[in-house]
Amino acid sequence: MRNSFNERLDHLVGQLVNMSQLAAIAMRDATDALLTCDLALAERVITDDRMVDLARSTCESDAHLLLALQAPVAGDLRLVITALHSAESLERMGDLAQHVAETVRRRYPRQVLPTVLRPRFEAMGALAVTLAETAADAIRTREPELTGYAAEADGELNDLHRSLFAVLDYQDWAHGVGSAVDAVQLSQYYERFGDHAVSIVRRSGFITTGTMSREAS
Asked: What are the residue boundaries of the PhoU domain, all occurrences included (predicted)?
């Protein structure tokens, strides 16, 4: 009985790791589509988001069965509860990558971003992918030390988001209001993606320590 329970827990962890990897791939591809105006790649991100949605449903169903049938306690209970919260965050991360891809599709064949902003969003995309991959590592290893690494990467992402407003407010901005609105919305997608990833990393550390950081959401 115990072996079966442990196998189900391991399977649940594997599902979350897979969701994290799907979110990382989705944001990587969405960013590539944004920077290169690749409509086919954007469409693929939009279509593949169904995989993340389905994975969340499966993960939540399995977690609820474990709660109902196995009555886990202590660290096992923390793992199942963390899985429920993390599955929701991971689905939202997939949605945010989808929103980036949808922006590409909506503006095609026009480039969404002016040349001056592309390096900024390339950096934001790289940080977002790193955070999703860190979430996968945290779920797999439950190392509390990963919280600091994720917080540092998220801080860089937040700085890029906040400093964008100074760029858009600069008097020589000559790319129009529509371009500025797109840039702000896209920046918010990346910033929120990072916030969800950090929340997952913190909750994964909670499984080991039993202590939830105040910053967790």
From this structure: 17-104, 123-203
Number of residues that this document lists for the chain: 217
CA dist 205 and 19 (Å) reads 18
Q: Which pLDDT belongs to residue 213? A: 58
Query: Cβ(125)–Cβ(199) under 8 Å?
Result: no
pLDDT value at residue 217: 39
Which pLDDT score is estimated for 75? 77
CA distance 30 to 35: 9
Q: Would you put residue 210 in left (φ > 0), alpha (ψ -120 to 50) or beta?
A: left
- pLDDT at residue number 212: 62
Domain 2-209 -> CATH class = mainly alpha
| pTM greater than 0.85 (yes/no) | yes
The rounded distance, in Å, linking the Cα atoms of 62 and 132 is 22
| Cβ partners under 8 Å of residue 81, min gap 6 | none
Residues of the chain with pLDDT under 50: 216-217
Question: Cα 128–134–140 angle (5° rounding)?
Answer: 145
